[in-house]
């Protein structure tokens, strides 16, 4: 399960294996993260894709150690640069957060504190980890703001969040994330709330920033078309599990999991004009007391009795590009034959 | 900002004018002070002379006109009972009441804020639940009963704290205050706590619900994602957000503590404005009652203005020019 993709030559900077996060609800246990494994290397971008409620944000929060009660990370390991992060005491975790591993949230309107000035919110992020004076810290804030394409940073630093548009706020959040040049940035659908033009700009900027600084980026989204132009690797998540993963080319062009195919078919641009979008039938299952077996079987055209048993995440067989086949993995009893994609 | 303040001052004048009319009419309706002020065995000539000297022979509207004319010259009339300017009488008593009210509110904040924060951060803990249960007492027990109980316990049974008067005072900028002497502080303790109790409960509840709400916000999660310490997240990010409603309540409560210190001052024989008001109502000392009410109204207006300014300092989204309607 924790096997590394053979494609990445560099050792992964973040290696997550068997991650499990449970919420104790009144009438059972919710498992939004149920044995998630993946790894990312420096300078690489990994897309984490899935429908709403599939546990993408929870995966990010689990890695950051930001799961609130009644939730708890109950299993698995998180290796950051080879060092186990899970089970670290609160202070060591705090020292990592924002410093070695940063996160950008879904809704830019809510992430910045409305009553604190931008400079306060940026400087404190530096001073939480480094013993630098306000002056030196401000210089770095200016540089970071300029890097994410904010004009006249000096004036902007003295503003409050409400004086910014949504796109600007998200840029500020990104600037805060890159302030300390972390090893890993988890970006939780940072562009969903923004319009398409801004979305494109931010995507391009993030891509450039990561390639240049060697930061590993985990880009969470529900939109496979975003991933196509951005990521190196893709993990497709469904009901708290990774159901397919591999390089972008493998997953998008030789799709093996019926769910991934369903996601692909519901992307407008991939459909012939005038044809109705093909939606995945049914709804995401409730994660409360989820029965064993393939969670997708109820919505799957290929389901058989066999699907009542848990499928394992295994290399896709009969792959045309043999070298990459070990990296392309699927968790399905009836993986799609290569070539029938789309 | 200055435009805002000027506009507010003009509004305040209007409020004062309306209030003065209402107060004047109200006091006029309560009763005739002559029956109380002049001894029954005075001659008719004496009676007439006194009535004329007090201006009570004139019709009400003319009395009001005279009152306004004098008020513009900062003269709110002479007390019937003491024959000294009413303003002087009130201002003389004001420091005692202000001191009592300030101490009570300070106590309320110093005790209420940390307890409320704790209850908000650890709502499920035993201590958190205990705090909330105790705060219900603060709400439901009547002030006079608390005052009497405190006197019973601390003054009568234990005999550790005095329950009567201001104690020794020291001069601060020419004004006598109790809190600068040990004896004065001991005298302050019981009445201030009596007045503080309801406000402690109020602040605990406000701070707790504010904290719980703020903790769920994304900006707190983002602050944690930045690696900030808990102390900074709670002390800066949470506190600054919940301060806005709390400042309002503290300020408005400060006003009502001053206005309604009457009961507490009476129980503890605290020589403040409240006690003066009760005495004045007993003898229908109109000028003192009118002056007292006008001063209280002015105080409320002033506090409200301060609250609005504090708002704009605490919440950058509030612009002073636009906040009033
Ligand atoms: N406090 C909680 N108690 C119980 N279950 C929870 C709680 N918080 C989240 N969950 C569960 O976690 C699941 C995954 O949530 P998550 O926010 O990770 O989804 P997501 O993939 O990020 O979706 P979206 O695209 O809408 O952001 C949800 O389906 C929800 O049932
Ligand atoms: Mg999410």
Mean of residue pLDDT of chain B?
Answer: 83
Question: Which blocks of ≥5 consecutive residues of chain B have pLDDT under 50?
Answer: none
Element string of chain B (H = helix, E = strand): HHHHHHHEEHHHHHHH
Small molecules (ligands, ions, cofactors) in the structure: adenosine-5'-triphosphate, magnesium ion
- What series of H and E elements makes up the topology of chain A? EEEHEEHEHHHHHEHEHEEHHEE
Which key terms come to mind for this protein?
heterodimer; A: about 350 residues; alpha/beta; Rossmann fold; eight-stranded mixed sheet; four-stranded antiparallel sheet; 11 helices; disordered N terminus; B: about 325 residues; mainly alpha; MetI-like fold; two-stranded antiparallel ribbon; 14 helices; binds adenosine-5'-triphosphate; binds magnesium ion
Topology, element by element:
The complex is a heterodimer of chains A (342) and B (325).
Chain A: E1 12-25, E2 28-41, E3 45-49, H1 56-64, E4 71-80, E5 83-84, H2 90-96, E6 101-104, H3 108-111, H4 118-127, H5 134-147, H6 153-157, H7 166-178, E7 184-188, H8 196-213, E8 216-221, H9 224-230, E9 233-238, E10 241-247, H10 248-253, H11 258-265, E11 314-315, E12 329-330
Parallel strand pairs in A: 3-8, 3-9, 6-7, 7-8
Antiparallel strand pairs in A: 1-2, 1-4, 4-5, 9-10, 10-12, 11-12
Chain B: H1 2-30, H2 34-37, H3 44-54, H4 60-72, H5 86-121, H6 126-140, H7 143-157, E1 170-172, E2 175-177, H8 182-215, H9 218-225, H10 230-259, H11 262-267, H12 273-282, H13 286-314, H14 320-323
The structure holds adenosine-5'-triphosphate and magnesium ion.
Provide an overview of this structure.
The complex is a heterodimer of chains A (342) and B (325). Chain A is of the alpha/beta class. Chain A has a domain of 192 residues: 3-Layer(aba) Sandwich (Rossmann fold). Helix content of chain A is 30%, strand content 23%. Chain A has an eight-stranded mixed β-sheet, with helices on both faces. Chain A has a four-stranded antiparallel β-sheet with strand order 2-1-4-5. In chain A, helix 8 links the parallel strand 7 and strand 8. Chain A is globular. The N terminus of chain A is likely disordered. Chain B has a domain of 184 residues: MetI-like (MetI-like fold, Orthogonal Bundle), CATH 1.10.3720.10. In chain B, strands 1-2 form a two-stranded antiparallel ribbon. Chain B is globular, with a radius of gyration of 24 Å. At the A-B interface, helix 2 of A face helix 9 and helix 10 of B. Adenosine-5'-triphosphate binds next to strand 1, strand 2 and helix 1 of chain A. The site of magnesium ion (MG) has 4 residues of chain A, from helix 1.
């Amino acid at each position: 399960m924790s096997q590394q993709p053979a494609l990445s030559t560099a050792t992964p900077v973040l290696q997550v294996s068997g991650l499990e996060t449970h919420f104790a609800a009144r009438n059972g246990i919710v498992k939004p993260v149920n044995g998630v494994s993946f790894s990312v290397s420096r300078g690489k971008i990994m897309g984490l894709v899935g429908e709403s409620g599939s546990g993408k944000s929870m995966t990010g929060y689990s890695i950051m150690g930001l799961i609130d009660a009644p939730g708890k990370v109950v299993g698995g390991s998180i290796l950051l640069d080879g060092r186990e992060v899970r089970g670290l005491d609160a202070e060591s975790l705090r020292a990592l957060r924002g410093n070695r591993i940063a996160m950008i949230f879904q809704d830019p309107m809510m992430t910045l504190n409305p009553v604190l000035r931008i400079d306060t919110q940026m400087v404190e992020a530096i001073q939480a980890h480094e013993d630098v004076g306000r002056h030196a810290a401000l210089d770095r804030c200016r540089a970071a703001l300029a890097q994410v394409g904010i004009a006249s940073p000096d004036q902007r630093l003295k503003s409050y969040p409400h004086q910014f548009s949504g796109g600007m706020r998200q840029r500020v959040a990104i600037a805060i994330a890159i302030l300390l040049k972390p090893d890993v940035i988890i970006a939780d659908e940072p562009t969903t709330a923004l319009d398409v033009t801004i979305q494109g700009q931010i995507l391009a900027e993030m891509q450039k920033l990561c390639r240049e600084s060697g930061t590993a980026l985990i880009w969470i989204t529900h939109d496979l078309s975003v991933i196509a132009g951005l990521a190196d690797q893709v993990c497709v998540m469904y009901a708290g599990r990774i159901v397919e993963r591999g390089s972008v080319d493998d997953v998008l062009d030789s799709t093996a999991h019926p769910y991934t195919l369903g996601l692909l078919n519901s992307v407008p641009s991939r459909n012939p004009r005038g044809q109705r979008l093909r939606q995945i039938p049914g709804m995401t299952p409730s994660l409360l007391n989820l029965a064993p077996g393939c969670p997708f079987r109820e919505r799957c055209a290929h389901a058989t009795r066999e699907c009542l048993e848990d499928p394992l995440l295994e290399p896709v067989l009969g792959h045309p590009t043999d070298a990459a086949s070990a990296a392309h993995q699927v968790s399905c009893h009836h993986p799609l034959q290569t070539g029938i994609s789309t | 900002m200055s435009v805002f303040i000027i506009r507010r001052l003009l509004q305040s004048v209007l409020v004062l004018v309306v209030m003065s009319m209402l107060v004047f009419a109200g006091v006029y309706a309560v009763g005739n002070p002559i029956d109380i002020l002049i001894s029954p065995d005075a001659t008719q000539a004496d009676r007439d002379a006194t009535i004329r000297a007090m201006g009570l022979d004139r019709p009400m509207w003319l009395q009001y006109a005279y009152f306004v004319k004098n008020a513009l010259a900062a003269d709110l009339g002479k007390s019937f009972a003491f024959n000294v300017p009413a303003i002087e009488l009130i201002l003389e008593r004001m420091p005692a009441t202000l001191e009592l009210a300030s101490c009570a509110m300070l106590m309320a904040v110093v005790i209420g804020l940390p307890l409320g924060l704790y209850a908000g951060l650890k709502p499920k803990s035993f201590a958190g639940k205990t705090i909330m249960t105790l705060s219900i007492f603060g709400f439901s027990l009547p002030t006079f009963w608390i005052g009497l109980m405190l006197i019973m316990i601390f003054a009568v049974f234990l005999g550790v704290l005095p329950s009567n008067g201001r104690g020794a005072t020291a001069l601060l900028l020419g004004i006598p205050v109790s809190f600068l002497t040990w004896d004065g502080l001991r005298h302050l303790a019981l009445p201030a706590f009596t007045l503080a109790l309801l406000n402690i409960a109020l602040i605990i509840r406000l701070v707790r619900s504010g904290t719980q709400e703020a903790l769920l916000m994304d900006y707190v999660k983002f602050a944690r994602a930045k690696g900030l310490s808990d102390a900074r997240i709670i002390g800066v990010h949470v506190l600054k957000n919940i301060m806005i409603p709390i400042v309002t309540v503290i300020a408005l409560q400060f006003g009502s503590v001053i206005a309604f210190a009457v009961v507490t001052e009476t129980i503890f024989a605290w020589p403040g404005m409240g006690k003066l008001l009760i005495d004045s109502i007993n003898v229908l000392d109109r000028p003192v009652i009118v002056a007292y009410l006008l001063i209280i109204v002015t105080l409320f207006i002033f506090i409200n203005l301060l609250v609005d300014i504090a708002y704009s300092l605490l919440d950058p989204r509030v612009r002073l020019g636009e906040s009033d309607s």
